[in-house]
Amino acid sequence: MKFKSVITSASVVAISALALAGCGSSSSSSSSSSSKKSSSSSSSSTTKVAKSPTTGSKMKAGTYKLAEENYSHGYKTEFSITVNKKGKITKSDYNQVNKKGKSKVDDASYNKQMKKVAGTNPKTYQPKLNKALEGAAATGNVSTIDVVSGATESSKTFQNYAQQLIQAAQAGNTATIKINNGAKMKDGTYKLAEKNYSHGYRDTFSITVKNNKITKSEFDQVNKKGKSKTADAAYNKQMKKVSKTNPKTYQPALNKSLVKSSDPTKVDVVTGATESSNTFVLYAEQLQNAAQKGDTKTISVDNMVFSE
């Protein structure tokens, strides 16, 4: 999987600078961006078609599971996906259950209250998220899954866990993924690296944790020579002209935001670099999960690249 914020010379010709800037400026935060995207594309979401990746390993047939170990507000997440022989997700079963194994979907009073306050509830957003993963995201493209307005936190958790299940499916690893959610992060340095290049670059990411705080964040996009995209003067100049930002600006901004909050869900999307910002948050959540377990093994992401 790869969220792409790359602006090539071809796309500059094909799309006006005004249109690109407009796409990037639709939000100033992760939640507002996703909410607007969800509401503005609700009518077209049913027409999205799952694309096959041009790069990245296809998912292997099987059932893959993930489970949170701790309850939050009386519930914890259980999640599984079923992949067919063609490498496509045919079933997504994301659920939040209590200690009796009862789904939050069946909690009538909770659903009524959340609907009143947030405009949605588990009975609505859980099926919607599952349907999205079985639809346009069925081949592994998590970036097609819109955040459900009013259920931002659950949607972000869904995206994070779906990505981890897809990575397991690519490796054919059917062992249940255990998430020590809510636990304090253990001191150490945690790393993640993509395997595949998109438009000549791949993402690398590391965080340093001390006393349950992220004290250092190093998110970068590097080419085959290990050179950062921030050092590509021509690229930065062109993207700045089209999107009003560039890697030299948004990479430090994202790193700074994560260190400030120590919480990936509180990282603001950088206007003009929405997709890179979303990828940053997705990977930061994986690194946070690793830190909660104290697992310092580098996470290798066999990222899928999809045609635009």
Second CATH tier, the architecture of the largest domain: Alpha-Beta Complex
- The proportion of residues forming helix, as a percent range, comes to 25-40%
Q: Helical stretch count?
A: 9
Rounded average pLDDT: 88
Shape: globular
Approximately how much beta-strand content do the residues carry? 15-25%
Biased composition (Low complexity): 22-45
Signal peptide: 1-21
Protein name: FMN-binding protein [Lactobacillus sp.]
Region (Disordered): 22-62
Helix and strand topology:
Layout: H1 9-14, H2 17-24, H3 30-40, E1 62-68, E2 76-83, E3 89-97, H4 108-118, H5 122-134, H6 152-171, E4 177-179, E5 188-194, E6 202-210, E7 213-222, H7 233-243, H8 247-261, H9 274-293, E8 299-301
Helix pairs in contact: 6-9
Keywords: Signal
Region (Disordered): 22-62
Biased composition (Low complexity): 22-45
Structure, described:
By secondary structure, the protein is α/β, with parallel strands linked by helices. The protein folds into two domains: 52-182, Sufe protein. Chain: A (Alpha-Beta Complex); 185-307, Sufe protein. Chain: A, CATH 3.90.1010. The chain is 37% helix and 18% strand. It has nine helices and eight strands. The protein has helices spanning 9-14, 17-24, 30-40, 108-118, 122-134, 152-171, 233-243, 247-261, 274-293, and strands spanning 62-68, 76-83, 89-97, 177-179, 188-194, 202-210, 213-222, 299-301. The protein has a four-stranded mixed β-sheet. Strands 7-6-5-8 form a four-stranded mixed β-sheet. Strand 6 (202-210) and strand 7 (213-222) form a beta hairpin. Helix 6 (152-171) crosses helix 9. The longest helix has 20 residues, at 152-171. It is globular and about 55 Å long.
